[in-house]
Design a protein that fits this description.
Length: about 450
């Protein structure tokens, strides 16, 4: 088939935004996929149908705002929005009662859609069609293909700003698998710069660096602490590091520009930095655009613990909100307030633990201040109603600015002792008393 044939097919499927969203019916499940895959024009067109539609449910993931269908209907009589993993904007929707979190682990993303979920319509942004009739999922590759395969109707919105990302598989969709195409002008993506690392972030990063060896492969999350780690690794003597991560951020770009990221010694995908989704600056998107040194894969591959475990010296670094003296980790919520999501933390805890020479770190500052300025310990005696992200049976290394401890194979008293040792000094005596009351503190424990 020739390019002219694909162009004719393209013209045949081209619709206005209003025509495209007319296929949505009462009670439908509609998917927006993830991050930059959000269909900006189609979202606004669907929101305009609010008064004629009822009980339409929308799913998304790490989407920045605004989301028109959520903002236009506080009654949720017409539209109800759900997120697999909350961005800062989606968190604000949760706070307003306009978003519902879907508990999940990322390596099961494809299975959820293949076996359990209904998708009446999927709407997503893709890059412009190439001469072979393919549209690239771009930084949305981690989640897009399984959703599209499950959908009754597929609508793509052409976004001229999306980088074209090379992939391992399922990074593209062919025009023959698309029902409708929508065009329109888009604003350039905002330069999403990460917050500057704090002194505590830098201290934690400095404590973790000695555990990383030359040739290690890294998975690091997004935020100020991972950003600090990227800075410090870029300034370190480490060399020939690899990337295998669900979320590619500017921390990896910093390592690459410093000559630290070569992917030279990975056991799988050698020579390529692997990721599922990407969120960051315009420089990051320029770096991954048509770059043969990176490959996007679905999260069913990137986050599968068996795949992660095949990579020697796999180092996973994530963060959390709190931990209790038993080693349970709360990383996605503060009490019952949804902050983010389980994401891939549990996937990489299991996978990195199975890696030869692998290590999995969960990091946090030892304390935080509430809205009234009161200081609280992030190490709690025992969770009571908190949502647990990672069970105590899976937690490996925990780090604060006061040290790094390994909980693998440790008994309850050993865990309590280790966690007290990295708590803020102002809270250690109180935590010891709480441990004694729970009979997880030996009389001979150090004080």
């Amino acid at each position: 088939m020739t390019y002219e044939y694909f162009l004719e097919e393209y013209r045949r499927k081209l619709r206005t935004p209003e025509e495209a969203v007319s296929v949505v019916k009462d009670g439908d499940w509609v998917d927006y996929t993830c991050s930059l895959g959000k269909p900006e024009i189609l979202d606004r067109a669907l929101a305009k149908r609010r008064d004629e539609l009822f009980d339409v449910k929308i799913r998304g993931n790490l989407i920045s705002g605004p989301i028109a269908v959520a903002e236009c209907d506080e009654s949720q009589e017409h539209f109800t929005y759900h997120s697999w993993h909350c961005s800062a904007y989606e968190r604000s929707l949760c706070d307003r009662g306009l978003c519902y979190y879907i508990p999940m682990v990322f390596h099961n993303n494809a299975a959820y859609y293949e076996y359990f979920l209904k998708v009446n319509v999927v709407m997503l942004s893709v890059s412009p069609m190439d001469r072979h009739g393919y549209f690239n999922y771009s930084v949305n590759t981690g989640v897009a293909a399984p959703i599209v395969r499950a959908a009754d109707i597929v609508i793509v919105e052409i976004n001229e700003n999306l980088p074209k990302v090379r992939g391992g598989y399922d990074e593209c969709i062919h025009i023959s698998d698309i029902d409708y195409i929508v065009e329109g002008e888009h604003e350039p993506y905002p330069d999403m710069l990460m917050p500057e690392p704090t002194a505590v972030d830098r201290k934690i990063a400095e404590l973790i660096i000695p555990y990383i060896v030359d040739g290690a492969t890294l998975q690091i999350g997004i935020g100020s602490m991972p950003n600090a780690l990227g800075d410090i690794i870029a300034e370190s003597d480490l060399k020939d590091l690899g990337m295998h991560t669900e979320l590619c951020s500017d921390a990896y770009l910093k390592m690459y520009l410093a000559g630290k990221l070569t992917n030279k010694y990975k056991q799988i995908d050698r020579g390529k930095g692997v990721f599922g989704c990407a969120v960051g600056s315009r420089n990051l998107y320029d770096w991954i655009d048509d770059n043969p040194g990176v490959a996007a894969y679905p999260l069913e591959y990137v986050n599968r613990p068996g795949v992660i475990g095949e990579i020697d010296n796999m180092v996973s670094i994530n963060s959390c909100v709190a931990v209790d003296l038993y080693g349970q980790v709360a990383a996605e919520s503060a009490g019952v307030r949804q902050i983010s999501g389980t994401g891939g933390q549990l996937d990489f805890l299991v996978g990195a633990s199975a890696s030869k020479g692998g290590k999995a770190f969960i990091c946090m500052s030892s304390v935080y201040k509430d809205s009234k300025g009161v200081v609280h310990s992030r190490i709690h005696p025992q969770f009571n109603g908190d949502i647990v992200t990672s069970p105590r049976s899976q937690v490996y290394f925990l780090a604060t600015e006061y040290g790094v401890v390994n909980l693998e194979g440790r008994s309850t008293w050993e865990r309590a002792e280790a966690l007290v040792s990295i708590a803020h000094p102002d809270f250690r005596d109180e935590l010891i008393r709480e441990a004694e009351a729970r009979k997880i503190w030996r009389r001979s424990n150090r004080r």
